[in-house]
Amino acid sequence: MSDTFVVTLTLLVAQAVRFGWDPNAPVSGPSAPPYWFVSIAIAALWLVNLTLMRSREPRILGHGGQEFQRVLSASWYTFAIIAIIGFLTQWQISRGYLLFALPLGTVALCIYRAAWRAWIHAQRDAGELQAQVLVAGPFRTSEQMIRRLRRAPRAGYNVIGVCLPARRRDGLADDLADIPILGDIDDAVTQAQRVGAEYILLSGNDDVSLAEARRLGWGLEGTGIGLIVAPAMVDIAGPRVMMSPVEGLPLMHVDPAEFTGGKYLAKSIADRVTSALLLLFAGLPMLVIAALIRLTSSGPVLFRQERIGRNGELFRMLKFRSMYVDAEARLADLRPASDGNDVLFKMKDDPRVTAVGKFLRRFSIDELPQLLNVFKGDMSLVGPRPPLPSEAEAWDDRVFRRQLVKPGMTGLWQVSGRSDLSWDESVRLDLYYTENWSLGGDFLIMLRTVAAVLGRRGAY
Q1: pLDDT digits (tens, 9 = 90+) for 330-385
Q2: Is 240 inside any structural domain?
Q3: pLDDT, tens digit, for every residue of 52-78?
Q4: Are residues 343 and 224 located together in one domain of the fold?
Q5: Domain count of the fold of the chain
Q6: Which residues form the domain of 343?
Q7: Which residue in 125, 139, 155, 174 has the fewest CB atoms around it within 10 Å?
Q8: Which of 76, 98, 125 is the last residue of a domain?
Q9: Orientation of helix 66-89 relative to helix 439-455, angle to 10°
Q10: Does the reported pTM lie above 0.85?
Q11: Is 253 inside any structural domain?
Q12: What is the DSSP letter of 245?
């Protein structure tokens, strides 16, 4: 219903702004209809595309970026179809009307979806709107799966039991002791019906043969219980995955991650153009901030720090100075009181932060000078967090993969909790971004950054 309301209201406003309140304003061209007919047709086409793109599927609502990507795709297809129809019929639909209606409607749809998502998140945080799941699979894989689902309650899956291989009779790890072991994997369908599970999540390998997995799928027919299959590979996004059936066996083709080529050139151009525009827009406020820093504490306006960039190259990252000039000398004494994770030092009430610096940090304003790093090419608008050389000394080859792309002003870890995240979770998010980034995903991360900054979660 909210999609219908937003699309209808947007087109009414677009027509009123462009043509006034005359519903019979005609479209230019041979046998062209009035604009009221065009508005109704566009609204119907838009809503159909939103449905065809499956933007309202329960499995994507409230979690991940697919929902917003599908809304953007539906809007783009609507615009493309209208352009084709206009070309074929020679109807000259007002460009001002279209350029007002479609972008405004797309933004409004995303805002409404974000509002609904906030409500869904609040409900799921309270334990509501959770799909009841029974996990079936090997012992260790099942434990890992349950932990991941528990770390992401907003995904909407509540594990109510687990079925393990017959030879495993010992209990789960201590942190999972509240999850009951309901029986063998062969009993998964019966147990799922008994406990009221809505899904069986199958995480199989040698303990679950192809024939057993197929029988499990057959056993679910007519029960109303869904089957979710977790692949052996993790942290791989959809654009890199293609399914192909071979003798009834669904093979998952995973494209290798690419770190060069036209896509990266497009990202670099977009970074530099956008950073230049943002610097023009933020130039005067940045001068005011610089003056406040100089007037309230001694020391330089900018803080320059050596960081590791793409492919391990060093660069000087810029920030507004938010600490007193002796901050580095006082770090050793404060390290035992760190509120951050095991690797990064963070302190919620850091005495080294100036009064102006507290405000700058709370809203991430201190990072605005990094737009100069982006324009220069050392950084990207979106990417992994730029690490200190001292942090990288203990890294293994797995963590170094995050440096295959440029570090960013914002990224997945920033919009997922920032300083509240553990080191392992921060690394996992940065690696996921490195392997799977896209321009569309970057745009969504930037939108989420605005919400994260305003919400001030993990900012200190």
Answers
A1: 776 666 666 555 556 666 677 788 889 888 988 889 999 999 999 999 999 999 98
A2: no
A3: 988 888 777 777 777 888 898 899 999
A4: no
A5: 3
A6: 262-455
A7: 174
A8: 125
A9: 130
A10: no
A11: no
A12: E
